[in-house]
Amino acid sequence: MSDAWIYGSTGSADDTSRLLAELGFSPHRVAANGTLRPPAGDSRAPALAVVLANGLEQPSCAELCARLAADEELGEVPVIVAMASDALGEGIGVAEGHELLVEPFTSVELQARIARARRAVNGVDHDDIVRVGSLEMNLATYQVAIGGRPVDFTYMEYELLKFLVTHPKRVFSREALLNRVWGYDYYGGARTVDVHVRRVRAKLGSEHASRIKTVRSVGYRWEEK
Amino acid sequence: MSDAWIYGSTGSADDTSRLLAELGFSPHRVAANGTLRPPAGDSRAPALAVVLANGLEQPSCAELCARLAADEELGEVPVIVAMASDALGEGIGVAEGHELLVEPFTSVELQARIARARRAVNGVDHDDIVRVGSLEMNLATYQVAIGGRPVDFTYMEYELLKFLVTHPKRVFSREALLNRVWGYDYYGGARTVDVHVRRVRAKLGSEHASRIKTVRSVGYRWEEK
DNA sequence: GGGTTTGTGAACGGCAGATGAACAACTCGA
DNA sequence: TCGAGTTGTTCATCTGCCGTTCACAAACCC
Predict the structure, then answer these.
(1) Which nucleotide is nearest to A182 (CA to C1')?
(2) Which nucleotide is nearest to B159 (CA to C1')?
(3) Fewer CB within 10 Å: C terminus or N terminus of chain B?
């Protein structure tokens, strides 16, 4: 799923790892040898970076923050900096865009600060971004991207796709789709749905087009397979 | 003798007042009757605003935050929003530039977050120049330049452009723009937004005009691409 | 192979948005 | 106080997009 890179090796690193895992992240520890990437795994930018400031010596927290902020490829990564209360006074530099977390913290606070850090980067709440394979829907910006490349959907195409994606596996009759996507007071030909499905499929491309399954004499279904 | 305005009246208000006083502020409680200013004293912008979210009903925390962020005169005030841990999950909107503080907190953490909130304001104030390609906005002097050549924007044109530029990627409905750029108590035709968008586009010139994307039957979005 | 269901291409028509211009409110200086 | 200039809003018209529909081809089931 979404990777989280953890910098620093205080005693709280294991706790933090566990909390992040509970929140749905795959935590990866990053060695404190100067690199910004975890030793193994792909080098795709993670969904989150967590800096445990306590005991960070080489590089220092401020330096690490600065390098994270400056890294070209990682430039868009949400960053959370966690430190103990008594380390706050030491003028440790936490970059402006980064979110400050003071230990001890609860899982709920961590979650809230993750959301804030991500919002600062993406301009929207993470909850508003849906990913299915290489397909990415930003529900706040009305943008769809496939493999990072933006794809233009018209309003109705977008609404239809959004509905299907957010209601996976269930089959919807054309009538049901007309009611829930077009609106309850709508009355028009059911074939309208067909045409829209076709256009959405075309824009989705070969990789994702087949995700909209047609269930003969019933309707359509979104399948993430 | 820097003033701090405190919104909300939970039990922690007194504690917060005391802590702020210890840190050298003059705390003033603001009535929860809708105004943003304290009942007495001069109306100069304070050095700090603290929102105690717990128990805030009318206006809600999110609304209060939005109004604080939108207030013309107070726009440059550092804001801290304090709330209990169990209130975090409710999707309470804390504006992006505001600093989130989770109760219970220590005096040291409060101090650190005050510093961050102030840096956020002063920082934005400081390198107050936003650059997007050859477009340059000086948020302090209300000046816009394209390719080094100054361009005149009227007040509302400037405000609209500034709002879009400082909230990139996100789509805003005309109504949302009317609320957040024109003001909450404004009520007028939504087409007003169209016309202003058109004028801003015209002044932006061919290179930047397309950065204001229109999302059909939704609204407008700023894209730096 | 006949009937039903779905895919496909093209064309129509409505409407959202762009555009130009006029109007109203306000500022400022003579 | 008047008038000219500026600025925000609204009206009227136009244009192009896009949602819808239709006709036909293809696929599927009996």
Answers:
(1) D19
(2) D8
(3) N
**End-to-end CA distance of chain A, in Å?**
15
Select from B85, B96, B221 the Cβ nearest to the Cβ of A119: B96
Q: Which of A 36-55 have CB under 7 A of nucleic chain C?
A: none
**The residue to which tokens 């509905």 are assigned:** A163
| Contact, B142 CB vs strand D, < 7 Å | no
Give, rounded to a whole angstrom, the gap between the first and last alpha carbons of chain B: 45
Specify the 3-state DSSP secondary structure of A146: strand
Q: Is the CB of B206 under 7 A from strand C?
A: no
Find the range with the poorest average confidence among A56-65, B32-41, B155-164: B32-41
pTM of this structure: 0.72
Tokens 């977050």 belong to which residue? B113
Per-residue model confidence as pLDDT tens digits over A140-187:
788 888 877 888 898 999 999 999 998 888 899 888 888 888 876 677
B71 to B75, B153, B184, B221: CA distances (angstroms): 5, 21, 10, 22
Average pLDDT, chain A: 81
B157 CB and strand D closer than 7 A: yes
Sheet containing B135-138: give its strands across: B129-132, B135-138, B143-146, B149-151
- A90 neighbourhood in chain B, CB within 8 Å: none
